[in-house]
Amino acid sequence: MTTQEPLGANLVDLDDPAKAAEKRLVVNSAVATLWSGPNRAREKDMPSLLSAADMRAWTGSMDVEEKLWLVGKLETQVLYGKPVKPVAVDGDWAQVIVPGQPTSRSDQGYPGWMPLRQLAECGGSASLAACPEAVVSSPTAFLYDDTEGTVPFIEVSFNTRLPVVREERDMYVVQTPANGEKSVRKSEAVVRNVSGRLSTPSGEQLVSAGKSFLGLPYLWAGMSGFGFDCSGFTHTLYDFFGILIPRDASDQAKSGLRVDRAELRPGDLLFFASNRGEGKVHHVGMYAGGGRMLHSPSSDRSIEIISLDTPSYSQEFAGARRYIPE
What we know:
Strand content: 25-35%
Low-confidence stretches: 1-6
Structural class: alpha+beta
Strand order of the largest sheet: 17-22-18-19-20-21
Mean pLDDT: 92
Helix content: 10-25%
Largest sheet: 6 strands, antiparallel
Oligomer: single chain
Distance between the termini: 45 Å
Number of strands: 22
């Protein structure tokens, strides 16, 4: 349904490193996948490298072994319209930092390499900065060229945020990074005032949002409704409700309020570590209530709800943290 190169490749010139840092850059693809270095992708990964990344074609084409190959080669993902900071350029690749994904690796944000063609320079305006945002609330949603929802432009992910310029019947008209005005169905987004404070979500709300992804296959470094890794899933659910937590499980395990297992509430994060829970944290899930965990488990499985007493997890339990303000 979607044209695969509609977003305008080569919109950014970063050849001058001195000027690159002055540019206000945003992701101009439904999802940008960040790699540990430039030119490390396979032919199999080409759909993810297009100026309009075809996430369904990419994730749907890989078997388990091909997904496992990505482990350690991908860093994270960034959604359409999100700002990034340029660091360096190598041919058709840009090294960037993602400010909205806290990490112990850098005090500026999450680092990685992405295709230069997936970036756009965004001048923005004071009026747009003051606009409320449409936040995609369904696992994925289409942006449309028209206000009737008959001409698809691009399929974007849950938690994609774009400024609302007006309303048309059952559509929000939003401003895109570099492609003018598009429309999204009101049934697939919520509007939030960027200048106002969000009401504190309940843990049940977080779990309910997470359940909409049940059955979605795991993707290493995934941060979108096309595929999540374990910590990308928990980070994104909290971010959707306006609570910023670290990107990775090992960092998530060091922040928030420590919670005893007997005092768990829905929405609390659960951590698992090697050496029977005493070693390095390698997995995170969300407490779903009733002694169960909602999580994105591994490359050979999909998002699921399981018992906390599942042996492979119970023996590696390493504690829990709460991030919802009391």
